[in-house]
Amino acid sequence: MLGLFRIVVGLLFACHGAATLFGVLGGPHGAAPHFAAWPGWWAAVIRLTGGALVLCGLGTRVAAVLCSGSMTYAYFDVHQAHAALPIENGGEPAAMFCWSFLLIAALGPGRWALASLVPVRRRPDAGGSGAGV
Could you list the residue ranges forming a coiled coil in this record (predicted)? Predict the structure, then answer.
């Protein structure tokens, strides 16, 4: 179930980033942020790439922490000034994404992650025998 949750959250977040960057999927028509403009362009890039990484299950924990942080910033910078509660200030999506990515970062990618297909190289023990001192 966690793998499916990760896939859905990553897909929705990546679509949100694509909509902002490219004006697709009902995004801002003709109002895409200028290249490297802070914070709009960077937020959209984090949404697109972070969402895609979480969706695929590659670097999931790091990408999820970055995505959660970006939504924390979005909530407090954009929404919090208007009202205290997310229901009052339109910050529900930012809050939901923030906590969803934090959950994914804490629990890991779950099943169906591409990272599980990549073999993990382990470094040999420095002591050689593996016995503790």
Answer: none
